[in-house]
Amino acid sequence: MQLHTKTLANGLRLQAVEMPETNVVTTLILAGAGSRYEDKSISGISHFLEHMFFKGAKKYKTPKAVAEAVDSFGGEFNAFTGKEYVGYYVKSGKSNIEKSLEVLSDMLIHSRFESEEIDKERGVILEEMAMYLDAPMYQISWDFEQLVFGDQPLGRDQIGTRELINSVTQEQFFDYKNALYVPPNMVVTVAGAVNAKMLDLVASYFEMPDKKPTRSAFPFDPDLATKKYKIRTKKTEQYHISFGCRTLAETDESFPSLKVLATILGGNMSSRMFQNVREQKGLCYSIRTQVDEFTDTGLLTTRAGVKLSDVLKAAQAIRDEYDCIAQKGITEQELEKAKNYLCGKTDLQTEDTEEVAHEYGKNKLLYGWERSLSDWKTQINKVDKTTVEKLAKDLFQPDNFRFAGIGPDIDETVLQAIIG
Length: 420
Prior knowledge:
Layout: E1 2-7, E2 13-18, E3 24-31, H1 45-52, H2 63-71, E4 76-81, E5 86-93, H3 97-110, H4 115-133, H5 136-149, H6 162-167, H7 170-180, E6 186-192, H8 198-205, E7 229-233, E8 239-247, H9 255-266, H10 272-280, E9 284-293, E10 298-306, H11 311-328, H12 332-349, H13 353-367, H14 373-381, H15 385-395, E11 402-407, H16 412-419
Parallel strand pairs: 2-6, 7-11
Antiparallel strand pairs: 1-2, 3-5, 3-6, 4-5, 8-10, 8-11, 9-10
Helix pairs in contact: 9-12, 9-15, 10-11, 11-15, 11-16, 12-14
């Protein structure tokens, strides 16, 4: 795997990640936008704008024309909105990269955001919001973020508010696009059956004015959130739990150790959470611990769907695993198993052009890194037992723990005692 890079005169950064023995190419555009760039009055505009880019532009004038262009060569076409960046991609055979570039550049540069299409899409997004509200497995993540980060952009979910969805205007879309979808705030990455010459082809499709971004991400205030738990009372067949704490930023030197810690705690089927809470105690079906990383902070959470009759017992069992790893540490065997697991998962990433494009694109956009997947494996392999144990002791303190739950009423007095 070889990385080729180029920065255009207008500040647009291009990357071609050469992956031998594949006939597939993922073409990915990332822009520094998302919920961290929104004040409360426009909460959700990044996500709505993501939808609107598919509604027709200069060459492909209608949503149907955009879809047919990609369907005509069997491509996969999608987009996503995060808190710190948004992405648009086409995954295709190598012979169709020019068509992929044509479609993506047309929609990103020439979208019209017609009022009629905006009005149609309001209903679509309201239905998307309803879907998430009806799906506790999705909603629990957003509830936990709101709990830990509080009332600031980082604590708000990307879908936004009904008020914004029902009222946002064409002018607001153009203002937001012109503020953030500018060359220095974007990265275009092609990964797969490409080479260095491909950068010139990419550049030919993104001739954009030399313009600087006029919005920036809102800074994170660590002192806004004060509540220990958040309960969403809802009739469900299963109680949904998210338990964890705020952690390190991805730029922290101990971040690889955090990934190892999360893996030992609940990252796979042989982890402590899975074996002790599910297999031994039979309290849940799904349970997993994961890390959500941002540029200046992060989260470590254990999410589980548990029996309605055993909610508090399950919460206590999860808390016990946090306490155990903080107080008694880990074994060398657990350490090596977790490191091997993470390195193995990284190897699997190298086979997927979409995964590779996303990793290289995100690193370049947010940090200016040209870190390879091999470099990441090197960092993981350097993680030692002492660092992981110190991190667990520092993070897993009662004051740091937070709990979000979705389901029928539970005894909150007992819950408070469990959280600490």
